[in-house]
Hints:
This protein is 23% helix and 34% strand. By secondary structure, the chain is an alpha+beta fold.
Amino acid sequence: MRRPQEGPFRRSWRHPLVAALAVGLVLTGAATAAANDWLPIFQTKQLAPIGLRADDLVSLPDLRGYGEVEVTGNSTLRRVGDVATAAAKTGLDVPEVASLPRGVSGKSEYQVVGKLTATFTFSTARATEEAGQTLPPPPPGLDGSRVRLVAGPGVTQVWSSDAGVPALIVGRAVAPSASSTGVPFATARDYLLSLPGVPEKVAAQLRTFTGDGSTLPLPVPADQVTTSSAQVNGSPAVVLTARDKTMAAVVWVQDGLVTAVAGSLDSDELLQVARELR
């Protein structure tokens, strides 16, 4: 059977910068747990890039090796006809581009994604079996504890191009939060990062994040993408630029929302779009 031809937008997700951006945005979303025994442990207020090599990401162990993972909801991007429908489907104020940069034209496409809930239950027995060796005893309360993350909804607006990557992408989603059934963020983080299978370089970077759970790490393939910092309307932003200069992106958190502007433009052009969003 002949494989269906891929459009420019679908092919673009193979680009390292778009992939890095997607990792961050897939994690976006916010909710508080319904049950009284759930303790809020994470609320994103800012982003910080962590430089990883492609093989670092590949070598990360599957979370299912440490316990049970239950995922509900639908993470599939769905095309909708217009901005009003996008707003109605997500409940978000869809960002409006004030003026298109030079070289970006034509009709844009709106896509939305629904809410996705993931609940992870840590199991000492499962982690020991995965490691094939005796592990250090977990901190009190960690074995059997649960962490819940609710992602989405989110919306993107895309202007296509003939270059194989989108000319411009503007995306927005609720900033992530997580809740736990009883262990502090730093306690769970430090123990999980100490287990066999987590690359030491990755673990060392993740340990530097504050225990208050306010900074979301943004994985970046450092061998293919450079990072810098900027300001977008008073909020700190991360600027990502592909080393081959084919794409760039600006990502920031403001008023509980993660917003990203990306495309086959240079970073100065994208910053201007970001600062003029309505």
